[in-house]
Amino acid sequence: MKKLYVCIIVSILATSAFGAGVTVTKPQSGATVQSPVHFVASATTSCSKGISAMGIYTAPFQLAYVVNAANIDTYLTIAPGDYNTVVQEWDNCGGGSSTTVPITVSGGNTEAVYVSAPANNANVSSPVHFSATATTTCAKGVSAMGIYTAPGKLAYTVNGNSLDTDLTLNSGTYNTVVQEWNNCGGGASTPITITVGDGGGGGTTMTGLQDKVGWAGFALLPPKYLICDDCKKTGPKVTWDMTQNIADPSLSGASARFDIGGTLPFSDVLYNNHLIGALSSQGVPDKDHTLLPSLQHFTYDVWFFGKNLEKSQALEFDINQFFNQMGFIWGHECRIAGGHEWDTWDNVNKHWVDTNIPCNPVSNSWNHLVIQVSRTDDNQLKFESITLNGDTHTLNILRPHGTAEADWWGVTINWQYDGNKVQEPYKVYLDNLNFTYY
Fold first, then answer.
1. Has residue 60 been placed in a domain?
2. Range of 140's domain?
3. Which of 205, 343, 369, 401 fits as disulfide partner to 352, beta carbons 3.0 to 4.6 Å?
4. Hey, is 294 helix, strand or coil?
5. What is the pLDDT of residues 202-239, one digit of tens each?
């Protein structure tokens, strides 16, 4: 967006005739392997812009690993069982290819830790639920299991080959390790990176907002990008629609689909939801104006999917707070056709500022985005971090607030998708949209 408004798939595939393909050298198709499973693969493409990313699916829509490169060399801890794993490549022209590698992960004679919760690279609330089991090659069995929340910091231990517990953790990103020790002096471990977004249990999370009430859509037209009061969803300059309760594609079983099209290049569509305070759609009105001034920490956690995200000029995700005539707009824009970079919003000068942080969401895949922001005690906006598909960039950008109408008190979130230079139609699906505040 150019201006912000707050209303806001064994065979190894050979390279195709078009020069695109995924070659997997490990594991072998149909092999029986032990965990952790070693994956080695490379990709080629006919796209002049090259490979954007590669990933490994262990089940449909379960992207267990992703890397922004044209090759993979990694180990994945996978529980015993049969799997049709898929190694996928995505190019920078909106295309991609994949290779399916069926494997059997053996349950015997392995020294491994299998973590069922939390998921790797997940955004979670405190207390954090940990659940894991372990297997061992030691004839004497597993002695104990434990959880490290930081190097050398053993936060929990239990005797036996399983653990199931909740840990209270402060807000932040943790490189946790779930460890097992056997009775022969050996052991194994599995690293799990998580982001805790609610400050040690003090926060409130609104979940599944993509399927909740309260969304309002608006057209924003160039060159001024003011809200177009007389535009209709049927166009012609810009067309848009929102459809909730979509089962496929979906992670939760109820995603929301957003469509855009039209005839006027670089036209945008903004969706806005009033969550807290005036016009609250979620039953949090704050009539006595005591809640809003107390809220200083916010997390925008969402998964998004598009078959051809390269058609998007930009995708925007914003958190907004207004009280006492002050306006706090934590605007975050992922420029895609616009240059594959994150921008943040300057409230005072009302323009976007480059962060030099790349933004490369993957088409035909669910992308996980976590944005964390806060309002300082002296009422500055703090842009804390952006995490996309497990890649966290710490910002710690401080900026002054803007102004707001005296009678407007509220917290809102925005979701916006922008048209490109020929206003190509495209769709984006949102799922598991959670908002945490405290």
1. yes
2. 126-196
3. 343
4. helix
5. 578 888 999 999 999 999 999 999 999 999 999 999 99
